Structure formats: C-alpha cells, structure tokens
Amino acid sequence: MSAVVFHGGDYGAWGFEAGGGMFGSSRLLMAAEGGGAGTQVVRVRAWPRFNPVVPIAFSVCVFLAVAATRDDALAAAGVLVLLAGLIVLRAVHDCGTATHTARRGLGLCNWHEGDARAEVFEPRHGQA
Q1: How far is the first Cα of the chain from the last one, in angstroms, to the nearest whole number?
Q2: Which of 18, 15, 33, 48 is nearest to 114 (CA)?
Q3: How far apart (Å, rounded) are the C-alpha atoms in residues 103 and 114?
Q4: What is the pTM of this model?
Q5: Tens digits of per-residue pLDDT, 51-87?
Q6: Residue 36 forms beta bridges with which residues?
Q7: Nearest Cα residue to 61 out of 34, 41, 88, 92
Q8: What string of H, E and C letters represents the secondary structure of 77-128?
C-alpha cells in the first residue's frame, strides 16, 4: 500500500495528510516529548477527511432520488439511491485506506509498548 503524503504547513492544525483516494484522506497530528532515560513519548491523533465534493454529490443524488420517487420513477430513484450509497462507501473506504496506510507507516518504526496512553519510541542506532 502507498499513499501520497502532504505536509500541514507552519500554521496548520494538522501535521500531515495521507491521501487514500479521490474521495477521502486521513489527517494526522504528532507530538513528541522527552520521556527520560533517552526515550521519547510520541502521541499521534488521526481523523478522516472527506473530499468536499462528497457531501455535495451525496445530497444531489438523494435530492434527485426523492424527486424521482415523487414522479413515480422508482427505477431511477433506486439507481440514484444506489449511487448515493456507493459514494458514501467509497469515501469511507478511501479514508480507511489512508488511515491504515498511516498506521502501517508508523508501525515500521521501532515502537515498543508503553503505558495505556502512549507508545514509547526508541530511535534505532544511527538515527538522531
């Protein structure tokens, strides 16, 4: 799995964004602090981000499905409801793919179990 990663910028409320597809991505915020004895405590927060087109496309499909139902065009309404459902499923899939890829990327580090609230990262030899 691979993802396109974007940097959050100097004043962004997020650290980086992993793209999962055309409909969704995942934004992450990381904080590292010294834990003593040469260790660091790294905290990661992630949340999904849908493409702004997703709610618009979903709303248009639902609106047209309601209009088709009022005109007794049930086949067209069914197709539009199916399309609205596929848009939502694809957006959720893309966000999930991005989150999974980011978690997997973070898992490639040398992580060790810490307390229940944080993971402890110990740098590999030769890394700063």
Answers
A1: 27
A2: 33
A3: 17
A4: 0.71
A5: 999 999 999 999 999 999 999 999 999 999 999 999 9
A6: 39
A7: 88
A8: HHHHHHHHHHHHHHHHHHHHHHHHHHHHHHHCCCEECCCCCCEEECCCCCCC
